[in-house]
Amino acid sequence: MGLSRIAELAREDPGRKLFSIAHFLTQEALYEAFKGLRKDASAGVDDVTYEEYEKQAKENIRQLHERLKGKTYRALPLRRIYIPKEDGRKRPISIPALEDKIVQKAAVGLLQAIYEQDFLSCSFGFRPRRGAHQALEEVGRVICQEPTSCILELDISSYFDSIVREQLVEMIERRIGDSSILRLIRKWINVGVIDEGRLLVSETGTGQGQVISLLLANVYLHYILDEWLEKEVKPQLKGKVFEIRYADDGAP
């Protein structure tokens, strides 16, 4: 059963919980994930670069896969760096170790097969074949073709740092019943951050900069915003309301 079948099962029954899917994190999937990483990306706390890992990539991937199968894989702390923002403030970015990037990217491919069946058409950030252009087109369509009396623009400040982890895991468990996948997600969202030589551990957030955080951010907002608006708010309104959700510079 391939990812297309996983997607089909998820699409057939929005309430279906999927078990035994960790086996899709194969050596081939891990290797494809590695090839899809940015070659010039900064190294994490492991100091391993793409170029260095590539020299023995297949053997490194084989060993990584064995650790995943044997449940001895450990996520390393993130390396914290700060990027200047236009307003003079600095945005914290957390850089995972290279092998954590590989496993996360492979996991994203698996989880997307499921969650792309759930996500609503109003969300445009961090999704395949969706982006700023499609979001702007939808804004234009709504303004020009729908009776528009009010436009409300909202920005979520420090979104990645504000996600409540317990709630996020509960949301994931609505669809994912595979303990191995859930264990990986818990590792990634609870891993600490090395900031100026100190290990910092927070109670909230998903670590902006992690590959997996983009998907998890969408899952969280899907349940607390998109579905709430669709199922709770819209039925009570006399008129229409349109949500167009996008992500810029790393935040939905």
Task: Explain this structure.
- The chain is an alpha+beta fold.
- Helices cover 46% and strands 8% of the residues.
- The chain has a four-stranded mixed beta sheet with strand order 2-1-3-4, with no helix packed on it.
- Strand 1 (78-84) and strand 2 (90-95) form a beta hairpin.
- The longest helix is centred in the last third of the chain and has 23 residues, at 211-233.
- The two termini are 33 Å apart.
- The model has no long low-confidence stretch (mean pLDDT 93).
Features:
globular; 252 residues; four-stranded mixed β-sheet; alpha+beta; 4 strands
Estimate the helix proportion, in percent.
Answer: 40-55%
Calculate the mean pLDDT score and round it: 93
First-residue to last-residue Cα separation: 33 Å
The main sheet comes to:
4 strands, mixed
Strand order of the largest sheet: 2-1-3-4
Q: Beta-strand percentage?
A: 5-15%
